[in-house]
Specification:
about 325 residues, mainly alpha
Amino acid sequence: MVKYILKRILLSVFILFGVSLITYFLIRLMPTDYIDNKYAAQIANGSVTMEQVHEIKTIYGIDDNSFGGIIKGYFSWLGNTLQGNLGISFKYTRPVGTVIAENMWISFWMALVAFVLQTVVAIPLGVTCATHQYSKRDYTLTVATLALISLPSFFLSALLIKVFAVDLGWFPVQGLVDASVVHATPISEWGDKIHHLLLPMLTTLLLSIGGFLRYTRTNTLEVLRADYIRTARAKGLQESVVIGKHAFRNTLIPIVTMMAGILPGLFGGMMILERVFAIPGIGYMSYEALMNGDVPFIMGYVMFVSVLSVIGTLFSDLMYSVVDPRVKLT
């Protein structure tokens, strides 16, 4: 097991190196950068000359977009990163690590609650669809989940805002707190934040529940066709025991592989949803940084999510061997 983990960690180092290199090249090859965006109006009216723009780019280290200049900039960034310095964000003018650490927790708690609700709702519904295959219940849930899977996140977000926030007035339209209200206690402030986050979490739940439900349904159908399920039924066991004790436990084994994407999803934020609902999470911050060509922040964010993805994949492989004794890591 230890040898396997060490090999995976070594492989992960090469993966992260490749991800960082490709990402840095793509960012530097964008048609505009942070300085162009920041001084666009001054450049247009002539108050800032191109020579001054070039001097500012030199200060920020983004003046040379040739192959050699990008390579030099990448290894400069890599050297600082290996020393624990992710740099200063161009847009937020603060250390990248500090900005990520302060803003990822809103995304984390919102995604965590949505994931727990998704699991609690999707797994029982997936099992009941499989045990009542081709019934009205199965067809209804299948059609509903296909519709939810097909909807773009920004469209569903706008639809829910229109219905529940604008028409019914049950939830705030955007933001994390009501700026017009002065909270007397921390409890009332947290209550206001939860009220603002309910609609984004509902949107996340609706978008994610469909895929999880169908995955559970497919796995359960495969398990129900296994020989040991027929043997259990032939022994005269009650159907609830066959489903709950024999089928359900084995249905959960493949679902463990889905856990690889949970960790980066929890901390990485939801860029589109947070942008639509104006939630100042890490996804929203990264979107704004991307639109402004903030090289240090984008690199820090991408590597943060990449490390979480690598850890999540390794954790998934290890858990698979734990829940299924037939799987051995060699």
